[in-house]
Amino acid sequence: MSIIKCNLRKLMAEHRIDDITELMAKSGLSRNSINKLYREIYIETAKLETLFKLCDTFNCKLSDLIEYVPGEDK
Questions:
Q1: Distance CA 43, CA 26 (A)
Q2: What domains lie within the chain, and their CATH numbers?
Q3: Exposure of 65 by Cβ count < 10 A (0-12 exposed, 13-18 middle, 19+ buried)?
Q4: Phi, psi dihedral angles at 51 (to 5 degrees)
Q5: pLDDT at residue number 74
Q6: Distance between CA atoms of 34 and 49, rounded to whole angstroms?
Q7: Which of 8, 30, 64, 71 could connect to 2 by a Cys-Cys bridge, CB 3.0–4.6 Å?
Q8: Per-residue DSSP letters for 23-67?
Q9: How far is 30 from 37, CA to CA, in rounded Å?
Q10: Would you say the C-alpha torsion 12, 16, 21, 25 has a positive or negative sign?
Q11: Is the pLDDT of residue 73 over 80?
């Protein structure tokens, strides 16, 4: 099974962003948009616009934020 992994928590720690409220203020994103990625729930339904805003906030590439880990299909 393939996995989509989100490195949002790691990026927040590296940029010393303590909580979702602080990230909301820096990125202009809603709590719901951030929560989905923070909790790694339904990552595949995240909007590209949301991902791009987070990349701009962290000054990183999309591949630094979202990671696709292919699995073995059975």
A1: 21
A2: 3-69 (1.10.260.40)
A3: buried
A4: -65, -40
A5: 53
A6: 12
A7: 71
A8: HHHHH---HHHHHHHHTTSSGGG--HHHHHHHHHHHT--HHHHEE
A9: 12
A10: negative
A11: no
